[in-house]
């Protein structure tokens, strides 16, 4: 129980290596056992020291962090926390890193690195602790040949797979650590004519634009960042902008997006609790809830409110989660109608939607 989390820091900046090592070594439950200025040195350190977690910079000499991460997750999968920069390019590469199997990322500032990293110290060590207990998966063969920043082309449209689905239906998804790939897995298996989808993934400002663009290139529906006041349309998925809360409200017969800058909820902004509470209040029995992988309890109580209001809820099972915190809490709150492996959630949801569509047809 007293074993320390052993961390290797990989970064080409001597200042960043020193700062991260100091932040890690200040913690009573972890220690920095090595620091490397490029991936080739890091490779030897990993073989020799067998760390529990590595922090990995994206842009480094001799081999960039993405190439190194891809090789690592094929040959020796282990928990990796990416250290990204707050740039458009940094955001795109970070999305690729999460696709390749990185557990999470920290966005370091472009200027004021020393003070910026110290301000992020609590976040960094919390994410290292989560990474240390996360379920790591070997990189699937399908992804090995994919180049960074080169998403697959959008599959052909499959409109009318569900027939006439009521526009009153709404799907709400919440996720945190490991959630970017879990959300992709669900959305890629939903048709172009599905009900509107609203999503909160814990993510800082500057990264959700790339996340939405990547999903839009891969999925049959349109995926975009939510904008305040816009109508929630069928065949569209809306993602909470990083650093902003996202909810829904009714405007006549329509649902519209509510995006605001109010204080964090459950220490998160965006918060799943905010989204799910709004869905419970204004969608009720026409809602379908999905809780995916993530640390903590954000959204669990509100998901129970959704169920009490008549929604049907799916929760990801422990075996398929990167981190089982949020799903575990949702189950403990009595919020789950079905607990399923990630790869079965989309199919189960479609089954429910088809039943609903058939019932609409019978009434016509």
Q: Layout of SSEs?
A:
Layout (H helix, E strand, L loop, with lengths): L4 E6 L3 H12 L4 E7 L2 H11 L3 E5 L7 H11 L4 E6 L2 H13 L3 E5 L4 H7 L1 H13 L36 E6 L3 H9 L8 E6 L6 H11 L3 E4 L10 E4 L5 E7 L2 E7 L11 H11 L4 E5 L8 H9 L3 E5 L8 H8 L5 E3 L1 H22 L1
Helix pairs in contact: 1-5, 3-4, 4-8, 7-12, 9-10, 10-11
Question: What does it look like?
Answer:
The protein is elongated. The strands form three sheets. Strands 8-9-7-6-12-13-14 form a seven-stranded parallel beta sheet, sandwiched between helices. Strands 2-1-3-4-5 form a five-stranded parallel beta sheet, with helices on both faces. The chain folds into two domains: 5-143, Response regulator (Rossmann fold, 3-Layer(aba) Sandwich), CATH 3.40.50.2300; 170-363, 3-Layer(aba) Sandwich (Rossmann fold). The model is unreliable at 142-152 and 360-364 (pLDDT under 50). It is of the alpha/beta class and 364 residues long. It is 38% helix and 21% strand. Helix 7 (179-187) packs parallel to helix 12, helix 9 runs parallel beside helix 10 (300-308) and helix 10 packs across helix 11 (325-332).
